[in-house]
Amino acid sequence: MSTETESPPTQRPRTGRRRKLQAPSDRWGFPLLVFAVHWIIAQVPGTITFVFGSTRPPLDPPFETGASWAYSMPLGPMTGLAHYLVEPMRHWDGTWYRLVATTGYDSTGIAFPAKAAFWPLYPWMMEFFSGITSISPESIGYIISNVAFAFALVLLYQLVSMDLTVDVSRRTLWAIALFPTAFFFTAVYTESLFLLLTVGCLLAARRGNWWAAGIIGLLAALTRSAGVMLLAPMGILFLQQYGADIRRWFPSIFPAALPALGPLLFGWHLTTAGLQFFDWINVQWQWNRFRATPWETFQCATVGCEAIIPNVGTDQARGVDWSWVEELAGSPTWSTITSAGFRDAFARGDWLELVVTIGAFVLVLLGIRRIPLYYFALVLPPLIVPLFSPSSVHPLMSMPRFVLPMFPLFVVFALLVTNRKAGVTLATLSAVGMAILTMQFANWYWVS
After folding, report:
1. CA-CA distance, 360 to 358, in Å (whole number)?
2. Which of 95, 146, 245, 319 is 20 to 30 Å from 184 at the Cα level?
């Protein structure tokens, strides 16, 4: 049959890979085991520290203990099981998602218009399920985060097994679940939901189910601003399957482009609430973010810099501070590591942001010849874009959290660490780090 007589819509898409696909023999048991271990290591230290530890003292007199220090949003105490499980995990941005879930994006009331910085799908789900169950919005957020992370691990197990091997997928799950900042998957944050939607989108696209991929990708683009960047890995998979002949692109090209609607729909929704279409960008100055080149951002993160912040003026960004190491070396005692001064210096030194960011780029370089091309397309845009908008408060603000949904980084790590003893040692150290950072978070100390 000649190519002229073939019917493009009925032709099976090319996968772009000759590797024989592998399916994990235990698609549910192993991912759920990893989830259970993760939850215990994150939740138990967080709960114990929240109940018996001391809340970080407020740095500014008007801001109340137990409030978000960004805009002083007092939170009422929770009762019952939620006091022990949810309350330690609802801090910082969790207060913002709760606020959006209860008040929406209207142009009146507390924290207007800063709420536009928080994308809508997660708080909409909190509001919806809270309304039909009468459970508090933050408890709903906690449930969403944990259920989403469990399912994300199940799908990630399948996707990595398809592209690489089952052994690599198993090590990847341990790496991502025990990463020091992985407790955000348990907290009232969007990391779990975004990871689930990211993996679900790419798994559907990998299988050639473009309508499912497009719809899931659109939901991801309504969860985080980075969701629209799924267009890059989706585009590579699309070309691998359909080639460069434009005639073969239709109709699959339409669902493949759906993530592009995310920012458009959110911007339109903001205008209906009395805000501006691009306020999700414009309000970033309230977190002291300013424009810079990536090399200027690294300068700010290492040695400090002078920042010109829109609507604020000039501010000084300090570089990384290792003074907590000197303090610990000079007095390695329990009283030192439990003191508020040491814990705050440990939290605000910006060393974690710098180490994680450099480590992420190292993993990208080491993975060039080891992982599929569309994995790189998933990682590079969301890794580079934040470097153009540092903050004078923390130049690499939130990078240890932003890397969590970039699962290819953990795939590269899994490919590099093949020795069992080394893997167990690193996993143990990482889990200890997660427990420590969870305890910091539970007492309102800054983590990421």
Report:
1. 5
2. 319
